[in-house]
Amino acid sequence: MFDLVIVGASAAGVSAAIYAARRNLKFVLVTGDVGGEVATSGEIENYPGFKHTDGIELTQKFQEQLEYNKVTIEQPVKVESIKRFPGGFRVSGGHVTKPMSWEAKAVIIATGIHPKPLP
Length: 119
Hints:
two-stranded antiparallel sheet
């Protein structure tokens, strides 16, 4: 059983993974892809620590920092359910042809958002 399962690798999920790694937690980062919505962004001028960047560069920085902190990443994974049981949670989903599940004491859901088109 893991201490933590982090669902999503957008800025919030990556941040959670970095902190979990630094605390030496037993955890896994489960995601469809690293970067989330920011990966498809053009110019970015409102991200802390960067005067100017773009989605591709920022996503590369996310990936580099995850590798530096030796974060275990399961990808591409689609999470289909999160169920509570006594003492923890079961996160289920998997790759296209390979069902997977992880049990943990806690779950962080950091799946981000997708912009809605204007009517």
